[in-house]
Amino acid sequence: MSTEAVASAPAPTKSRFHWEHLVGLLGLVLLVAGQYMGLFVAPPERMMGEVGRILYTHVPAAWLAMVAFTVAFVTAVAHLFTGRRGLDWATEAAVEVGAMLNVLLLIQGSIFARPTWGVWWTWDPRLTASAIMLLTFVGVLMLRGAVRDPDRRATWTSVATVLAYVNIPITYFSVKWWRSLHQIQSSPETVADPMVFVLRLNAFAFLFIMIWFIARRWRLAQTLARADEAPPLPAQEAT
Amino acid sequence: MTVFATAGSGVVSGGWEYVYAAYGVTWLFFVGYTVSLIVRQRAADAASEDP
Amino acid sequence: MTEAMKRRLFGVAALAVAGAALFYVGMSDMGDDLVYYWTPSELIAAAEAKEATVRLGGMVKPGTLDWDRDAQQARFTITDGDHEVPVHCTGNPPQMFREGIGAVVEGKLGTDGVFRTDRVMVKHSNEYEAPDGHPPEVQTTLVDE
Which domain holds residue A100? Predict the structure, then answer.
């Protein structure tokens, strides 16, 4: 703005407005409303009492972890068939965000399990599958970190992501395929109406925040890749 | 402890500390990941500007 | 072979392997061998289950719960509709524990036919109701799987 700034302006401005900030802002507003309603407006659950409120923050984390991994699966397959570098960055971004949500999911679940089921953890099929899901995608990120060449790194990441994605349907159906302590999926028929609304509000909040996270993480991957691949710059004039 | 007051009724009494812990960890993760994105982006921008 | 062709081949192969793995897990009878808990019928039928640490799951039979909170002892019967196993629990079960709810207990079936446990887990149904909603119903979903 000031003449000083113009005079000493070193680089093209980085503060361009990005579309994802609108989505992120919407997500933040919905999250504040959704979490407030989950804590103070929604009724307590008949048997779980106040503890039942954990549902509104636990279930969206589970859904959106799976959505993030699904985004990663789609971009991984698309990268393998098109070779576009941007899709590889998207896979990296979505896997990292999915893994972050997966860790959150396991911690929330543990906090939910103690006062309801009576234990912090048990090796039931759903819990075991969720833990394996996290470990495999952390494995994808570690594999990615170990490969130096960008093209091979992109191919290997994509292949590993496609293979790791098998975990998502297994985790989702684990409560139906095997005997578990974790209840099967709830539906609007099994959840009281005021609870369904609060759950949906939080789910959309998580969705928009996840989109913001993935978009920002994608831009970070882009910045790093460009810095990595740019040819050595000619020596700049000393200032 | 009020834990045993309603034991056998099948209804959980109290437990707000679990509720706040679960919501708190949600915000902790979201804020923490946001901070990590900003810090990493700044470092990457700085690194790509002065080679 | 060009790099692009190689990459696409990897893509097809990865999808095929992932699909086959999923098909195998979904279609195989892994569930019959890997069980998180035994039903009373299975536990009674399996002689080798005696004195081994296993999980037993079923419904807490209404009218069988005898819970001494001060002594931290609870006795109840786990049923799957066909068979039932008497359970002796040391320590207090979780707050959600009641008659008619699903439960999974970890412990050993003694030679006297009593299952001894110090770890009781409550299986909640997938129903979430406000306090003024329907009254609690006897849970049957755990029994017929």
Answer: 20-224
